[in-house]
Design brief:
alpha+beta, Multidrug efflux transporter AcrB transmembrane fold, 3 domains, two-stranded antiparallel ribbon, disordered C terminus
Length: about 375
């Protein structure tokens, strides 16, 4: 832990007594040059050493012990114009002051930065902030008010009261999850609009999108078992997995409506879709698991791999049952058996294996 408040630093100023310096024939430049040589040193040339590949610079300055005290600096000798020497303190006046402290501002507001590194069992700053936030709420300042905390992206508007702005990794985390959440919500709206336009129903898109939350059944326990935190990459994996879940659900619903267009009952179509389409869904999940396994132990993209792998396995198992059941509940009724749905162009172009077998049987093959 550290903060930006600085302790008072002593500062020494040497002012040249122009009258005394002039009496001894010493200029202010001579005083400045002698002081610089004593503190910082001066280059005295190069040492040409046969055993060295390059020339060695020679620097002349006082030893650390001699230049660490202001008294020793004052004892430096200056050559006079009359051939003698005089101490530096004889022609200068020493003034002791303090260094001006650094002033930090953010958005034109004065701030004091408190920095810290989180390590050990709780690497995420969220857990440390939650613990410290409870302790800060209990602090009572002398004026009687509590310290206001800003945990989002807003900044304090007043400087006459103490307030706490959680910044750094926390601020970045809030912005990332906020932007990803808004993007995910926009994508869900677009998916609903496209699916509603394709199936010409306002209820079917809800059935197709229902398995998206089911991925959390696998994602959250998998993070706990792996001892990993739910990071921004985990959120990206959840969003990416939602697209695969929607794709599997569309295949199931489209297959059910294909069976119904061929005259099959609603119950049989629902059961047939869950049985026939399970293998391609399982192969898709296996491909995702194998592809994401290469980054499973990466320190940055581990959350992405866990979300993709666990979310896809859980959604494949659960959506196989959830989507047909939800579709059946939304379509059941007296008119469910008499409805013959029109086939889409995709269904005409890609007849299923069962359709081809039925045609062969009808032709006596």
């Amino acid at each position: 832990m550290d903060w930006s408040v600085e302790d008072p630093q002593t500062k020494y100023e040497l002012k040249v007594d122009l009258e005394k310096a002039a009496l001894h024939g010493i200029s202010p430049a001579d005083v400045a040059r002698t002081t610089q040589i004593g503190l910082e040193g001066a280059s005295a040339g190069l040492l040409h050493e046969s055993r060295s590949r390059e020339d060695i610079p020679i620097e002349v300055r006082l030893a650390r012990a001699d230049r660490s005290r202001i008294d020793n600096l004052g004892n430096l000798k200056l050559p006079t114009s009359f051939g003698g020497e005089i101490a530096l303190q004889e022609v200068t006046t020493l003034h002791q002051t303090t260094v001006d402290p650094s002033v930090y501002r953010k958005n034109l507001l004065s701030v004091v930065y408190v920095t810290g590194e989180v390590a050990g069992g709780e690497e995420s700053p969220a857990y440390a902030i939650m613990k410290m936030s409870n302790a800060i709420d209990k602090i009572k300042v002398p004026d009687g008010y509590t310290v206001m905390q800003y945990k989002g992206t807003a900044m304090p508007e007043r400087t006459d009261h103490f307030s706490m702005k959680w910044d750094g990794d926390w601020h970045i985390t809030v912005e990332v999850f906020r932007d990803l959440g808004l993007a995910f919500a926009a994508v869900l709206v677009l998916i609903y609009v496209m699916v509603a336009g394709w199936f010409r129903s306002f209820v079917t898109p809800l059935v197709i999108m229902a398995p998206i939350p089911l991925t959390l059944v696998g994602i959250l326990p998998a993070h706990a078992l792996m001892g990993a935190f739910f990071t921004a990459t985990s959120m990206i994996g959840f969003i990416a997995g939602a697209g695969i879940v929607v794709r599997n659900a569309i295949i199931l619903v489209d297959f059910i409506e294909l069976r119904r267009s061929q005259g099959m009952s609603l119950e049989d179509a629902v059961v047939d879709a869950g049985a026939v389409q399970f293998r391609p869904m399982l192969l898709t999940a296996a491909a995702v698991v194998v592809g994401a396994s290469v980054i499973l132990f990466d320190p940055i993209f581990q959350g992405l791999a866990i979300s993709l792998m666990a979310g896809e396995v859980a959604s494949t198992v659960l959506s196989r049952m959830a989507v047909p059941v939800l579709y059946y509940l939304s379509k059941r009724g007296p008119a469910a058996e008499s409805v013959r749905l029109p086939m889409s162009p995709l269904q005409f172009a890609l007849p299923t294996r069962a359709t081809r077998i039925a045609r062969q049987c009808g032709n006596g093959r």
